[in-house]
Description:
- The chain is about 30% helix and about 15% strand.
- By secondary structure, it is of the alpha/beta class.
- The protein has one domain: Ureohydrolase domain (Arginase, Chain A), CATH 3.40.800.10.
- Helix 6 links the parallel strand 5 and strand 6.
Amino acid sequence: MTSSKDPSTINFTPPSAMTMPRYAGVASFMRAPHLSMDDAACDLVDIAMLGVPWDGGTTNRPGTRHGPRQLRDLSTMIRPIHPVTGQNPFEDRNVADLGDAPVNPADIMDTLEKVTSFVASLKNKGISPLSAGGDHLLSYPILAAMAKDRPLGMVHFDAHTDLFDSYFNGYKYTHGTPFRRAIEDGYLDPKRVVQIGIRGTMYDGEDVQWGLSQGVRIIRIEEVEDRGIDDVMAEAREIVGQQDTYVSFDIDCIDPAFAPGTGTPEIGGFTSREAQRLVRKLAGLNIVGADLVEVSPPFDPSGGTAWLGVSIMFELLCVLAASKQSKNPNKSTA
C-alpha cells in the first residue's frame, strides 16, 4: 500500500544540531528523512542509506547484526558539509534512510534472496544504495541485484580477500566467500576488481592465487606503504575505469587500534586518516553503490568503531552523490 503522504512535502535536508539536538528525535542515518519503501516520496530519492542487520555468514565472532543500529545512533554526529571539498551531498542529491533490508537470522539462503529483492526494488526506482552491515556476505546479494544487467567493477578495501571457495567441508556462503561467488556468478568483472589493504596470516593462500588467476588486482598493505596512497589509488582508478563500479569497505581494513569493534581484526592496518584519503581518491569514478561492513558493537560498546564507520560512510556518500545524476532537475549535476 502506497502512502498518501504528499511527496512534495518531504524535506530531504537533515535538521541542524543548532535547532534540534543530536540526541533528539528518531535516529536515522546522518539524520536524513526516514522513509518506507511504500512512501510515494521514494520516487524522489536518489541515494538510499540502508541497514542490513545480519551476521549469518560469520564464522567466528558474531555481533555485526547489531551494527546498523549503532551506526545510525553515532551518525547523528555527522554534519552535512565536507571539510575539504565543501560538498554538501544532501543538497546535491535527495538522500533518505530507507530502513533495513529484510533478513532471516535463521536462514542464510532466505536472507540472500530477501536482500537481493530489496536492493533490486531500489535499482528499479533508480536509487543507488549505500548499505551498512552486517557481515561481508551481504555484499553478495547486493551485487546480485545491482549487476543484473552487466558485471560491475569494484574497489574493495579490506584486510581479507573474501575470495575463499568454501568453509566447513564445502559450505559456499560465508563472510569469507562473497566475491568469489560474485565473480563466478558474473556479477563482478574480475579484471575490473581491485582489492586494497590485504594483510594478515593465511590458511594456504588459495584465495589469493584464485583471485590472481581470474585477473583480480590484489594490493597488500605493504605495497600501499611502499608506493603511497595516491599512486595506488591512481592504479585503482585506471583498473575500474569509467564503467559502473561498486565500492565495498570492510572496517577491518583499518587498524584495530582505531577500529577494535570488528569480528576479524588484523594488526598493521590503515589509520583512520589514511582511510579517509583512500575513499576521497574515488572521486570522479562512476560509482553505482557502496557498503560499509563488519562493525560489531559487542567488541566496542563505546561506539568509537561505529563513529569511524559512519565517518567513512559520509565519505562514501560524497563520492556516490558526485557520480549520481539527480532525479530532480533543480539539483546540482556536479
